[in-house]
Amino acid sequence: MLGPGSKQHQWQLLCSFLPGLFACVGCVPRGTRRRARGRVASPVPACAVTLLLQRLQDKEGDRAQAYCELEHVLREGDSRPPCGVVNRLLAEVSQDLTAAQGVPDSVRMAASDVLVALARTHFSLVMAELQGHLKAVGEMSKEFVLLTLSKLFTSYAPQCIPFVWLMLAGLRSVVGWVRGGRTLRIACAVVKQWLEGVKVHLCSGKQCPWPAMEIEQIHQNLSQLFFSVLRNWQDCKEEKDKQAVLGAVAAMMAVLLREELCREHVWEQLLWLVHPYQEVQDTCRVTKSLSVFLEALEGVPSVIPKDKFLAITSAVFYQVRGAYPCAQSSFPLG
Questions:
Q1: Burial class of 141 by CB neighbour count within 10 A (0 to 12, 13 to 18, 19+)
Q2: Helix pair 143-160, 105-135: axis angle to 10 deg
Q3: How far apart are CA 128 and CA 235, in angstroms?
Q4: What is the structure's pLDDT at 34?
C-alpha cells in the first residue's frame, strides 16, 4: 500500500488531476488524448478556437481571414468549444457584427458566418445573442444581425421554429427605427422567410413545437408586428422597398388568417395592398401586388369577406380606368 505522503502517491494524484485541469482550458496532454481517442471527441479544435479568438482580441493580422479560419474549425465534426470560450467569442464577434461604422462589410460577413458555424453546437446561445441585438437601442447596425438570422434559418430551420415568437418581438424594434433602404429590405426578407417556414410547418401536420400559451404569444407578437409594419412602412418611396414590404405583409397575413380571432382585423387591412399605388398609373404594379397576396393565401382556410372583395376590386377598376381613359365609355361606373 502506498503511504499518503510518498512520492509515488503524490505523482498518482498529480496525474489524475492534470487531465481535468487541461480539459477546463480546452486542451489535453497528447498521451491522454491518444488513449481517450476512442471514448471522447478530440478537444484540439477547441484549442484552435482559443488561439484564433486570442488573435482577434489582440487585433493581430487580417480579421476577415481569422474569421474564415475560425469558421472552418467550428464546422469540424469534433469541435465543441467550452461555454466560457463561446461567451468570449460571442462578445468579440458581436462588436464587428453590429459596428455602426469603421468595420468593412467583408469582416462583418465573415463574423456572421462564424456565428452560423458556432450555432451547430451552441444554437441557443447564438440565437440569444442575436435576439439581444435586435432589441438593443442606440448606435448599432442591425443589417448583419438580420442577415445572420436569415442564414441561420437556411441552415437550421427546425431549430429556429421554436424561437419564432422571440424573433417577431425583436423585429418590432427594427420596424420602429428603420424607414427605408437595404436594412428594411433585409428585415422584410427575414420576416417572409421565417413565416413561410412556419406556414410549411403548420401545413405539414407535424407535432406543434409550441405549447398553447406560446402559440397565443406568437399570434400576439405577429399581430403587433403586422400593424407596426403597416403604420411605419406603408408610405415607402422606393419601389424596391414597396415590393419588399408587400412580400412581408402577405406572409404575415397568411399566418394570421389561420387564427380565427385575428381574421377580422387582418381583412380590414386588405386595401393597404393598393394604397402604395393610388397615385401610380402603372396597373401592372397593382396586379402584381394582388398576385403576391393571393399566392401567399394559398391553402389558408378563410374566404375574403364580400365587402372587402368589392372594395378592392373597385379600387383596382378605378386605377385601370384612370390608366386607360378610353375604357370609360365601355365600362361606366355606377
A1: middle
A2: 70
A3: 32
A4: 37
Residue type, 31: G
Who's near 43: CB < 8 A, 6+ residues apart? 23, 26, 27, 28, 33
| pLDDT digit string, tens, across residues 58-115 | 988 899 999 999 999 999 867 788 888 999 999 999 999 999 888 999 999 999 999 9
Place of cell 469541435: 79
Q: Which amino acid is at 154?
A: T
Q: Which residues of 187-215 are buried (b: 16+ CB within 10 A; e: fewer)?
A: bbbbbbbbbbbbbebeeeeeeeeeeeeee
Model pLDDT for residues 146-189, shown as the tens digit of each residue: 999 999 999 999 899 888 888 998 999 899 888 889 999 999 99
Start-to-end C-alpha separation, the chain: 109
Q: Which three cell numbers stand for residue 177?
A: 427605427
Radius of gyration of the chain measured on its C-alpha atoms? 27
**DSSP secondary structure string, 116-168?**
HHHHHHHHHHHHHHHHHHHH--SS---HHHHHHHHHHHHHHHHHHGGGHHHHH
> What nine digits make up the cell of 171?
423585429
List alpha helices for 161-297, DSSP H.
164-177, 182-204, 212-233, 239-256, 260-267, 283-296
Grid coordinates of 59: 487585433
